[in-house]
């Protein structure tokens, strides 16, 4: 299993408008293809005007297949054209489980 952590940094003053448009159009398109996100957040401390989302996949191959389907959806492409002017940057990270709590306990 992998978790994809995406951080979008938005232009100052566009956060509320971006969230509204995502809620109205983007969320249904994205979750309909990728599945429900593990989480979708706005940032209140640190780097403001940011949105963070977490998406879970069984493998990198599953992620690639789902992302390719999403990228081929004309409605998603229209949505991206609408919201792209809000973006300053995007960061993408893949989180891998540290397997804490699943390792055998050793008594030394």
**Sequence of strands across the biggest β-sheet:** 2-3-1-4
Low-confidence stretches: none
The percent range for helix content is: 25-40%
Q: How is the main sheet built?
A: 4 strands, antiparallel
CA-CA gap between termini:
31 Å
Number of E-state strands: 4
Strand portion: 25-35%
Shape call: globular
Name the structural class.
Answer: alpha+beta
* Number of helices, counting only DSSP H or I runs of 4 residues or more: 3
N-to-C series of helices and strands: EHEEHHE
Radius of gyration: 16 Å
pLDDT averaged over residues: 93
Explain the layout of strands and helices.
Blueprint: E1 2-10, H1 15-34, E2 39-42, E3 50-57, H2 60-71, H3 74-83, E4 87-95
Antiparallel strand pairs: 1-3, 1-4, 2-3
Helix pairs in contact: 1-2, 1-3
Description of the structure:
- The structure is a single chain.
- The protein has helices at 15-34, 60-71, 74-83; strands spanning 2-10, 39-42, 50-57, 87-95.
- The chain is α+β, with helices and mostly antiparallel strands and 108 residues long.
- A four-stranded antiparallel beta sheet has the order 2-3-1-4.
């Amino acid at each position: 299993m992998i978790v994809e952590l995406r951080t979008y940094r938005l232009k100052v003053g566009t956060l509320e408008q971006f969230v509204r448009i995502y809620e109205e159009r983007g969320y249904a398109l994205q979750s309909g293809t990728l599945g429900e996100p593990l989480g979708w957040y706005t940032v209140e401390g640190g780097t403001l005007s940011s949105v963070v989302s977490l998406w879970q996949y069984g493998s990198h191959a599953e992620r690639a297949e789902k992302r390719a389907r999403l990228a081929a959806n004309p409605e998603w492409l229209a949505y991206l054209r609408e919201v792209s002017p809000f973006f300053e940057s995007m960061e993408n990270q893949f989180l891998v489980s540290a397997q804490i709590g699943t390792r055998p306990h050793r008594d030394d």
